[in-house]
Specification:
- The protein has 586 residues and is an alpha/beta fold.
- Helices cover 37% and strands 17% of the residues.
- It has 21 helices and 20 strands.
- The strands form 4 sheets. Strands 1-2-3-4-5-6-7-8 form an 8-stranded parallel barrel, surrounded by 5 helices.
- Strand 6 (170-175), helix 8 (182-193) and strand 7 form a beta-alpha-beta unit.
- Helix 7 (153-165) crosses helix 8 (182-193) and helix 14 crosses helix 15 (340-354).
- The radius of gyration is 25 Å and the shape is globular.
Length: 586
């Protein structure tokens, strides 16, 4: 009897979609033995936003995560989501970096590489596919699904045929926003099966309420693999429940053969674990049909909410969702998946806050001029001209963008070595720095402190305020503050003193603003990424003073006056909207 193969997403896409990618590895490992027994074809455990979240929020080494998860699941393939030439970052990388990343991911434990490009530009997939095949791992080519005038069944079949020619072992239809309707799925897969011979996997978010029916029709049409999430980590912006799909297909020609009783036990575990992450929960927990228009992927929704909250603009979510449709059209109808979902989403936020296209992010400009690849349709010509002018270029990129990037791995390694004080750096750390240079050095310097620890809410507010579980170098300690001068660690009491020995150092934040100076304020919350000038330099009105990283995108902060400048913030500082960041003395 033919059986459908199942990939469970609880350890990657499910918590990315529901909990802003905050689940730590220590909450994954206790259930690993049972997960490994289920018989999944694969488990998605890496890639997507997990790498970024690990070093940005969790103080956890993503390379160590995949090694631990692989060791804990010896009978189950570990799967990752790879953004083609973007890898896990937000730009195209040179071919030598792509090769090295895939090689190291395979060595550390990745068995299945689901490779996609946000624009469905196969030129951006070729190198990754070759690298995966060289590593003798499973290369799954991806169709990023969208519903626009430029995305038709014929175009998808053509794309699939190109992927097969590139050597993929299987193809995934990646429906990141829950837009794939059941009968459209049936027709698309029937068309694909008539042209290609490799297995087809279907990945459909449950955001719009259609995913269970979509997976059923996909299976009926001939799909061999489906993506699901254990029920306590399913639905909402996540995916169809694993147990539900197993039960639906049981005793049919598509029986998965998975043990529902074991799955129910696993669901119980995650039901309790999820309570630890309540603060990160997406409010999109039911079916949201606005997404049929906005086309926002599940993983982006929870992040978009938290980003708007950071900008003190939570009430503007509906306006942003409407604006996304406008920006997507103007940008050439890119499918909304990382990084285009972040680019379009952040630009939509800025449009709502500052006025339409008054501030273009660096990534928006690069997408408009072809530096990410070829968009399905031509972008708005006036916007392209604006982007070219701000980038100071004379023509758009028409060739494969990575052809314009010389080999860079050795240069990146040397740069990191210098920033780490000249000491030798591991190849995996070099790749971490290559992907996220703005935050990697801080992470590498603080990695030994160990991952953060989340606890479920405690009813007794007094107890919650005084008891903690602290993680130091990977070991957990039960800590209770008993008063002003004592603390208990694992039951042993110590006398302590707080607030002594703090150096009285002066920083930029202590500087008094000169009388008559023009103050430049940060328009958004973000992190100071780099200066364009030095203190005391003379600048003109309109000059770009510094670059902020906001919502994972780069934003230029320009001067509104001419004169000599003094920075009021340090590199790496987190700033809030309206905070003074530069003064200009005329």
């Amino acid at each position: 009897m033919a059986k459908i193969k199942v990939t469970d997403l609880a350890l990657r896409d499910a918590h990315q979609s529901l909990l802003a990618t905050r689940m730590v590895t220590s909450d994954m490992l206790p259930i690993a033995e049972k997960l490994n027994k289920v018989g999944f074809w694969s488990m998605e455990t890496w890639g997507g936003a997990t790498f970024d979240s690990c070093i940005r929020f969790l103080n956890e080494d993503p390379w160590e995560r995949i090694r631990k998860l692989k060791a804990a699941h010896p009978n189950t393939q570990m799967q990752m989501l790879l953004r083609g030439q973007n890898l896990l970052g937000y730009r195209n990388y040179a071919d030598d970096v792509v090769d090295k990343f895939v090689e190291r991911a395979a060595i550390n434990g990745v068995d299945v590489f689901r490779i996609f490009d946000a624009l469905n530009d196969t030129r951006n997939l070729d190198r990754s596919i070759k690298a995966v095949k060289k590593a003798k791992k499973h290369a799954q080519g991806t169709i990023s699904y969208a519903t626009t005038p430029y995305h038709t069944v014929e175009k998808y079949v053509e794309l699939a045929e190109q992927l097969v020619k590139l050597g993929v072992d299987s193809i995934c239809i990646k429906d990141m926003a829950g837009l794939l309707k059941p009968y459209d799925a049936f027709n698309l897969i029937k068309a694909l099966k008539g042209k290609i011979g490799v297995p087809i996997s279907v990945h459909s978010h449950s955001t719009t309420g259609m995913s269970v029916a979509t997976l059923v029709k996909a299976v009926e049409a001939g799909a061999e693999m489906i993506d699901t999430a254990i029920s306590s980590m399913g639905m909402g912006t996540s995916h169809s429940p694993t147990e539900t799909m197993v039960e639906i297909l049981q005793n049919t020609e598509w029986d998965t053969g998975l043990d529902v009783k074991l799955l129910v036990e696993i669901a119980g575990y995650f039901r309790e674990i999820r309570k630890k992450y309540k603060q990160f929960e997406s409010s999109f927990l039911g079916a949201d049909t606005r997404i049929l228009i906005a086309q926002v992927p599940g993983g982006m929704l929870s992040n978009l909410e938290s980003q708007l909250k950071e900008q003190n603009a939570s009430e503007k979510i509906d306006d942003v969702l409407k604006e996304i449709a406008v920006v997507q059209k103007d940008f050439g109808y890119p499918p909304l998946v990382t990084p285009t979902s972040q680019i379009v989403g952040t630009q939509s936020v800025f449009n709502v806050i500052f006025g339409r296209y008054n501030r273009l992010t660096a990534e928006s400009k690069n997408l408009l001029v072809g530096n990410y690849g070829k968009t399905p349709a031509k972008p708005n010509e006036e916007l392209v001209k604006k982007a070219m002018s701000e980038l100071n270029i004379q023509k758009v990129t028409e060739n494969r963008p990575a052809d314009n990037i010389p080999n860079e791995f050795d240069k990146i390694a040397a740069e990191l070595k210098e920033k780490m004080g000249g000491k030798e750096v591991h190849v995996d750390d070099v790749l971490t720095y290559a992907l996220f240079p703005q935050i990697a050095v801080n992470f590498l310097n603080n990695r030994d402190k160990g991952p953060v620890v989340f606890e479920a809410p405690v009813e007794d507010a007094k107890k919650a305020a005084s008891k903690y579980v602290l993680n130091v170098n990977g070991k957990e300690y039960n800590v209770e503050f008993k008063g002003d001068n004592s603390v208990s660690v694992d039951g042993k009491t110590y006398e302590v003193k707080f607030g002594e020995g703090v150096a009285n150092t002066e920083s930029r934040h202590d500087k008094k603003i000169e009388k008559g100076a023009k103050v430049i304020e940060s328009p958004v919350a973000g992190t100071v990424l780099r200066y364009n000038y030095k203190d005391g330099d003379s600048i003109k009105e309109g000059d770009t003073l510094l670059i902020l990283e906001s919502m994972k995108m780069e934003l230029e902060i320009k001067s509104t006056a001419a004169g000599k400048i003094e920075y009021l913030v340090d590199l790496g500082d987190k700033v809030s909207a309206g905070q003074p960041i530069v003064e200009v003395l005329s």
